[in-house]
Design goal:
Helices cover 88% and strands 0% of the residues. The chain is mainly alpha-helical. The longest helix has 55 residues, at 66-120. It is rod-shaped, with a radius of gyration of 28 Å. 2% of the residues are buried.
Amino acid sequence: MELNQYPSAIATAAQTVNNLDFDIARARRQIAKFENRADVEVAANQDLKNDAARKAERFQILENNADYQKLLDDLAELTHQKATAMAELEKVRNGFSAAKIEARAAIAQQIAALECAEFIGL
């Protein structure tokens, strides 16, 4: 990759991470809605006499909700995708840093060659 292509590649990789962050936040909000609905349902059930019974009922409600379970799976997948995207972003950033160092070394080498040529009178 050419040095001038890195900023665009970094921006693209960063946008991918940002999009995944947005999707993760949306999934978490949806999960929270399901959990809040389960809490309301448990609170409305007068037959549940103690905290352990309420927790067990909440767990059962959420465990039996296919949409909630799918959201949990989706969140896990999005989290994995984000980790992969973050690794790619760091790879591109590190590539840019390495390319800058190589460019600086090449410039320094050219300057040294010019100074050497001037020194010997070429």
